[in-house]
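Before going further, learn to read the protein records used in this course. The integers have meaning only within a learned vocabulary of local backbone shapes. The record below shows the convention in full.
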Amino acid sequence: MPLSFPATLPPTQRMRGIRRQIVAALTAAALVAQPLAPDVLSAGVAHAQALPDLGDESQAMFGPGQERRLGEMVVRQIRGSGAYLEDPEVNDYLNELGHRLVAAVPEGRQDFEFFAIGDPSINAFALPGGYVGVHTGLILLTQSESELAAVLAHEITHVTQHHMSRSLASQQRSLLYSLGALALAIAASRAGGSSGQAISAGVASAQALAIQSQINFTRENEYEADRIGFQRLDAAGFDTSAMASFMTRMQKSAQFSDGGAPSYLRDHPVTYERIAEAQSRAYGKPYRQVPDSLDFQLVRALLRSYNGTPKDAVAFFNAAIADNKFNSEVAARYGLVASLLRAEDFKQAKAELATLEKAAPPHPMIDVMAGHVLMEAGDLDLAIARFERALVRYPNKMQLVYDYPEALLKAGRARDAATFLDRELARFPGNGPLHRLAARTYAALGQKLQQYRHQGEFYAWQGDLKGAVVQFELAAKAGDGDFFQSSVVETRLRTLRRELAEQQAVAKNG
């Protein structure tokens, strides 16, 4: 799959709608997982005084497997919405950085997946089951890799401490208390023969209690994520002052912003007390100057090359290089090549690539860019050879895994592409973009069962279970597969139909 060069990143308004979908999905799943006690209102005072003991909120509603499935459900919605940034270079980097932080303080067997949201707003969020999303706007705003690591460490803690599950349980507890308080108000009004004032007062008190409970719970989560996240940041070898510096900049941006506070501040309220505590923790550690990795600089340059029109992006990097206004000359020249490629100026992209390779150390992102420039310029044999050499050195570099079969397809070598993709899908069976590439490859080969099967897997990866079922039904009827392939299709079709039925039941109950 080639690098994507969007003219503009998806608007912030789209993410607001997605956040509402996320909350709705989480709440619906929570209510299905732990249904409310029936007839709370009609039971009156007895039920109000005997509310169920939810115990440990992080485990009462969801076990680890349930958390993972819930998080995956939300991520699929994000993929299907178009907000998920399908850029392996950015997502690979986030996963490398995130897993470095996870490994620094091992906790249980929690799996993590980090991904980018193509949105210029400043935000990051954690989902149950180890999923952490980071907006591209936040990556571009960070002034050091340690600042980005501080954000990820904070979000990782939200996962390891089960804050999302505990929050859902807390909201349900608040709902139960609200219903109980309402039942008491109704009972009191009946006993005293009063008007509906007692009911109104009871409702108001219950609402106030629920709101304050949620505020306290959010505050507690943020402080815990700061404290444990700081320990993780320190253990991973990053600059411990970065957490306080990022918080301070966020707070200042809120004070001087005409468009309101950044999204990160709305979701992660920053107070002077939190900043002071972060500063105090950092003062207790010896000063540590931590240089940014080249990966960090290259990823930020790649994201910057996506901004504005192609002409604007080229002008930005040309000016930065001419005026020596950059933190890394290699990254600035890489950003220029990416911008020229987006502008389809292949001749100048080749010339700048030669300059870049003279200045840069060996790096997989530069190998990818070189192969991509050759492929887009039509030099397919050279591109294929470049990708093959790079894959020997970097077999797990996903952009290479996507670009190599893409180049083979363009060269009319669909059979070679299919052989490669079958091998890679054995390693990465849940990789949606790989399945999409496989669907195109088998379509070129005229193999309908395999085409529909892989297209169905891509739809499932996106969260479109209905579309996935349709594709697998077509695969089952194709009649051009062997016994083993047909059995795989039938088995997967049964699973997808069951998942679709469960999803529809959740939506109906929610």
Remarks:
- Residues 14-27+53-283 form one domain.
- The longest helix spans residues 197-235.
- The chain has two domains: 14-27+53-283, 297-509.
- The two ends are 37 Å apart (CA to CA).
